[in-house]
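[Meeting: bench + compute handoff]

Bench side (C.D.) handed over the final construct sequence. Compute side (W.E.) agreed to return the predicted structure before the next meeting so the bench team could plan truncations. Sequence as handed over:
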Amino acid sequence: MVKEGHGSGNEDHKSFNQFDVVQDYSDHHYAKTSPGKTTKDWAKTIQNEWKLLQRDL
């Protein structure tokens, strides 16, 4: 694979947009779960999300 127009390999990361950081994440899907919920459930949800991504990408 040939990279064109991006300069040296060390500079490639600068071409990506930065992510915004929010102070209030109360409307986020994963923030709706109670704080006492086990990390096992959380980890299982993340694993399922990864499986979907791996299958569909």
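W.E. noted at the follow-up: Residues 8 and 21 are 28 Å apart (CA to CA). C.D. will use this when planning the next construct.
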